[in-house]
Write a structure and sequence with these properties.
InterPro entries: Homeodomain-like_sf (IPR009057), HTH-type_TetR-like_transc_reg (IPR050109), HTH_TetR (IPR001647), MT1864/Rv1816-like_C (IPR025996), Tet_transcr_reg_TetR-rel_C_sf (IPR036271)
Largest sheet: none
Protein name: TetR/AcrR family transcriptional regulator
Organism: Thiolapillus brandeum
GO molecular function, one term: transcription cis-regulatory region binding
Number of domains: 2
Structural class: mainly alpha
Keywords: DNA-binding, Transcription, Transcription regulation
CATH topology of the largest domain: Tetracycline Repressor, domain 2
Number of helices: 10
CATH architecture of the largest domain: Orthogonal Bundle
């Protein structure tokens, strides 16, 4: 077992997050525990809790990294399109693809619940807010006649719809409905909503 001064606080934090992500990716959220993460990096649980307040704090940091990764992927894949509509639709496809490739990490972001009465810290709320901001910014060029509040609501509606498809796809519920392509379903949802919101045919 390594001594506590073998690594800096920041190094232990990074080691713990990387180890936790690996455990979650292979075993799911239920397979992850503070004891298992501590053992993976060669430190005690006590040392782990010198870096994180508690297990919820560790999970919040994991989820923040997941949101960063998703945000960067959406930006990167969107950059391949110049047409405003194609850029917006790409966000939905990227979201679906990320959930399919990293289902355990994606699920943890939305399944984790803080103790009753406790709210996520501001730094985590900012991670969530910039996801919606990305959709809103992509909507603006298509909806010049819409107010900021309308665009904000439309972004939330689109995200909710695509997120719902993700949940059904990961739980295999879309198979029962006879859906062959999750990406085609996502495209249909977004394009039909946008047809009404923007007033154009796609």
């Amino acid at each position: 077992m390594a001594r506590r001064n073998d690594h800096s606080r920041d190094e232990i934090k990074e080691m713990a997050l990387a180890a936790a992500e690996k455990i979650i990716s292979t075993e799911g959220a239920k397979g992850m525990s503070a004891r298992k993460v501590a053992a993976a990096i060669g430190y005690t649980v006590g040392t782990l809790y010198l870096v994180f307040d508690n297990l919820d704090d560790l999970i919040l940091h994991i989820n923040a990294r997941t949101l960063d990764r998703l945000h960067d992927l959406m930006l990167e894949e969107q950059a391949g399109h110049s047409d405003p509509m194609a850029r917006l639709l790409q966000l939905g496809h990227s979201y679906i693809r990320f959930a399919d490739r990293e289902p355990h990490r994606w699920e943890l972001v939305f399944e984790h619940r803080l103790p009753e009465g406790q709210q996520p810290p501001d730094w985590f709320r900012e991670k969530v807010a910039r996801m919606f901001a990305l959709v809103e910014a992509s909507l603006e060029p298509l909806a010049a006649n819409r107010s900021a509040d309308e665009i904000k609501q439309a972004a939330a509606a689109l995200w909710s719809g695509v997120h719902g498809i993700c949940i059904l796809a990961i739980s295999k519920q879309l198979d029962v409905a006879g859906v062959d392509s999750v990406q085609d379903l996502t495209h249909s949802l977004m394009s039909h909503y946008l047809k009404g919101f923007v007033g154009c045919n796609f």
